[in-house]
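Tip: read the tokens left to right.
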């Protein structure tokens, strides 16, 4: 059985932030810049609260089969909800999208490497 790498993107919007919460997010914004976006097991969060109230979490997980993808997606969304809730940040409009990398077509570089190795 082969393993599958699943990437989950969870998007949402901050909701009803207080002035102090907004200031807190602005103070930490440099650590959540899109330049640091990466899919990780722990998840990374990006936002630009100065421009708009939206945020994105990125998660990755390796699973045994396609049947595990809904659970991975649910765990990622729950982790994003927990991150916001544990800090007292209101949020709305959460959505999660999973991509199975084993189903993603190779780009030209990937095809060249596959041809060399196989």
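Filled-in amino acids:
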């Amino acid at each position: 059985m082969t393993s599958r790498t699943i990437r989950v993107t969870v998007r949402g919007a901050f909701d009803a932030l207080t002035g102090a919460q907004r200031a807190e997010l602005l103070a930490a914004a440099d650590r959540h810049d899109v330049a640091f976006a990466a899919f990780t097991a722990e998840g990374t969060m990006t936002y630009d609260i100065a421009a708009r109230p939206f945020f994105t979490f990125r998660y990755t997980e390796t699973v045994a089969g396609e049947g595990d993808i809904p659970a991975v997606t649910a765990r990622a969304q729950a982790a994003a909800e927990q991150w916001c809730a544990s800090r007292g940040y209101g949020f709305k409009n959460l959505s999660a999208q999973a991509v199975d990398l084993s189903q993603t077509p190779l780009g030209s570089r990937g095809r060249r490497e596959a041809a060399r190795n196989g």
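Residues 1 and 64 are 7 Å apart (CA to CA). The domain at 4-117 is CATH 3.30.70 (Alpha-Beta Plaits).
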